[in-house]
């Protein structure tokens, strides 16, 4: 069940180490980085087969060793960088068909990201169009051999068709962006932004998204004329990170800050906005993440540095709104959570590097139904797969992105001694490890492209689809 993302060392003549790392390249372009060229899958030096590399289980890498990803483990892989790191992003739904695949031709998708610049005036909301994303070529069957194979014009045209393109539209934003979440409100696409200036703002990015979709040709970056937010809320006393749109109630939003405040937003007729003045009271530490129920419009869940998870009824005010508390949900801060759209399950990640899966049917007893400990650093992001009810993705400050399937069980049919020694100590539910990024901050599944995952880190974005998703 564990998909080995293997690679070859480029550093040693005598040893070959396998892993799922990928080299990032800097771009000469002012705004975005180039997409990586894919490894050809051939051994670099020595040609020796190495062991599977699993962080925390395999031996430590030597000073002269470096990991690269194995193309055989991916159906699709691309990466790019922005001039300034974007530590939060979201995926904007588009008008293209749902369920599309790289097998039917190059893919196209759109994300909205927020920068973290050294100077507050240099920050931007970036609408990024990722176009012409081609899948991996795992054999020579796709290569054409014909009499005109030496035709340079034909080769150039073929290469052009297979070159990924990134189009960027930027909106100036004052302040670093802690978290950004996108929602479709009628014909408009709106981004909610938590910034480090203690403000939560709503931005209409409909025009920027349309511009990115209309762009053609090679990599381009444009900046819109000065834009103003639709609405700014300054009722939070400190900055924060918790931010979530309701999937059931149009224009309903929740925001939480670093001094335990949690507020509910409502969109009114005419496009005006109202935010409750008292907020939901109960947490004793920073509100780290918020998710609305995918099935019950009034319910939302939050997690906090006070080690608790809380389930709220937004129809009730004050402390009475809290209908369930899970104390000591993790050994330390509870950083992130994700609510399963299909089953009564919630997954959480904490500073203790653990992942906990909770059943809403038994959550009141304070015990998760599953615990996983592959990561070695604080968990920074979790998200259930949009269509596969038992699969979720997680990221951590240990530079790992992991994919899990909680329905997988240990193969009891395997006789003692026949088990893969390289997999010893690995939970059978761990399906894939994606490495190579530094301090991965967020991961999201694309809601319209099954199996396509995106991650952002200090050294850029990865867009990939594994062979088992």
Automatic annotation (TrEMBL):
One of its GO terms (cellular component) is nucleolus. GO terms for biological process: ribosome biogenesis. WD repeats lie at residues 280-313, 327-362, 372-414. Residues 22-31, 141-156 have a biased composition (Acidic residues). Keywords: Repeat, WD repeat. PROSITE patterns: WD_REPEATS_2 (PS50082), WD_REPEATS_REGION (PS50294). Gene3D superfamilies: YVTN repeat-like/Quinoprotein amine dehydrogenase (2.130.10.10). SUPFAM superfamilies: WD40 repeat-like (SSF50978). Pfam families: CAF1C_H4-bd (PF12265), WD40 (PF00400). Residues 32-51 have a biased composition (Basic and acidic residues). The keyword Secreted does not apply. Residues 1-51, 136-163 are annotated as: Disordered. The keyword Repeat applies. Residues 64-133 form the Histone-binding protein RBBP4-like N-terminal domain. PANTHER family: GLUTAMATE-RICH WD REPEAT-CONTAINING PROTEIN 1. This is Histone-binding protein RBBP4-like N-terminal domain-containing protein. It comes from Pristionchus entomophagus.
């Amino acid at each position: 069940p564990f998909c080995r993302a293997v690679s070859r060392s480029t550093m040693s003549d005598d040893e070959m180490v396998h892993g799922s790392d990928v080299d990032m390249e800097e771009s000469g372009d002012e705004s975005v980085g180039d997409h990586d060229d894919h490894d050809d899958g051939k051994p670099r030096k020595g040609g020796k087969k190495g062991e599977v590399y699993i962080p925390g289980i395999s031996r430590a890498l030597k000073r002269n060793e470096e990991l690269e990803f194995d193309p055989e483990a991916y159906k699709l892989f691309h990466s790019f960088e922005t001039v300034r790191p974007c530590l939060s992003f979201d995926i904007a739904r588009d008008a293209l068909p749902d369920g599309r695949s790289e097998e039917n031709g190059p893919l196209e998708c759109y994300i909205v990201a927020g920068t973290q610049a050294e100077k507050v005036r240099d920050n931007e909301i970036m609408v990024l169009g990722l176009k012409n994303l081609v899948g991996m070529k795992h054999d020579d069957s796709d290569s054409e051999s014909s009499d005109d194979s030496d035709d340079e014009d034909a080769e150039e045209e073929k290469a052009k068709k297979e070159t990924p393109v990134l189009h960027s539209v930027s909106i100036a934003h004052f302040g670093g962006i802690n978290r950004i979440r996108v929602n479709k409100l009628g014909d408009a696409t709106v981004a909610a932004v938590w910034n480090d200036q203690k403000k939560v703002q709503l931005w209409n990015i409909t025009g920027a998204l349309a511009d990115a979709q209309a762009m053609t040709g090679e990599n381009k970056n444009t900046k819109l004329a000065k834009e103003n937010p639709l609405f700014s809320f300054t009722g939070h006393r400190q900055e924060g990170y918790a931010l979530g749109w309701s999937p059931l109630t149009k224009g309903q939003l929740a925001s939480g800050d670093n001094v335990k405040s949690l507020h509910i937003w409502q969109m009114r007729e005419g496009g005006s906005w109202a935010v409750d003045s008292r907020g939901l009271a109960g947490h004793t530490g920073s509100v780290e993440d918020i998710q609305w129920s995918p099935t019950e419009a009034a319910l939302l869940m939050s997690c906090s540095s006070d080690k608790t998870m809380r389930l709220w009824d937004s129809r009730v005010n004050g402390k009475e709104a809290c209908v369930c508390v899970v104390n000591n949900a993790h050994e330390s801060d509870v950083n992130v959570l994700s609510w399963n759209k299909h089953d009564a399950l919630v997954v959480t990640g904490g500073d203790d590097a653990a992942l906990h899966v909770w059943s809403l049917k038994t959550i009141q007893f304070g015990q998760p139904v599953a615990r996983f400990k592959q990561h070695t650093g604080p968990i920074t992001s979790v998200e259930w797969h949009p269509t596969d009810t038992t699969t979720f993705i997680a990221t951590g400050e240990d530079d790992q992105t992991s994919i899990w399937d909680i329905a997988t069980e240990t193969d009891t049919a395997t006789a003692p001694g026949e088990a893969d020694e390289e997999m010893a100590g690995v939970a059978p539910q761990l399906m894939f490890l994606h490495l190579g990024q530094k301090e991965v901050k967020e991961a999201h599944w694309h809601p319209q492209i099954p199996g396509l995952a995106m991650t952002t880190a200090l050294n850029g974005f990865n867009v990939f689809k594994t062979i088992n998703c």
